[in-house]
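Translate sequence into structure tokens.
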Amino acid sequence: MMQIHLHDLRFFAYHGLYDAERVLGNYFEVNIDISYTPVSLPVNQLYDTINYVSVYELVKDRMAVATPLLETIATDIAMLVLDRFSMAENVFISIYKLGAPIENFEGRLGVSFTLNRA
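Result follows.
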């Protein structure tokens, strides 16, 4: 089993339940890990693996669609990965909102989701 990792991806987007979030926007951090079995070993060709540039584009495109809940985005991205990459067996994704609209809140909050093809 092999994994590809795309971590600390930063996006500015308009996700959230509150009007201010949908108007002002916020920064988000996405981490995604995809497990798969390579087509052949050793992995010498791009078609023997999952192209992380394609995964990044998928995540970037989905993050551009304003959505009230991070849970919706996480599950959508996981399902898109399994749909688009037939080799993918398992997807783990976490999404963090870096500027939560909570009074006196410092830190980040987020969701994580794991989806298995089986």
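Note: The two ends are 15 Å apart (CA to CA).
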